[in-house]
Predict the structure.
Amino acid sequence: MEQFYQVLTWIGVFAYWLLIAAVTVRVVFKRRVVGVSLAWMMIIYIVPIGGVIAYLLFGELNLGKNALNVLVKCSCLLVTGLNNSMIVRGINHNK
């Protein structure tokens, strides 16, 4: 029975390091500012399981398609409105 627990422990350690490696690769390839990536990696390495959970909850911005479309429309309307108000005021940045 002791050998079973030892094998189970090794499998757990291997799975943990595999999870840490996968999240680290995800953080590096996300193309963020270097300081933000280093901060997330520190959290992931210092806080064993909690760091991975925190990254998955707060580190990834996961908008649905509808929310993303609304955000794009609002930003386009905002930019269009600002450009129109600048034209009405006589401000032209296209010179």
About this structure: The first helix runs from residue 2 to 29. The chain has a mean pLDDT of 80.
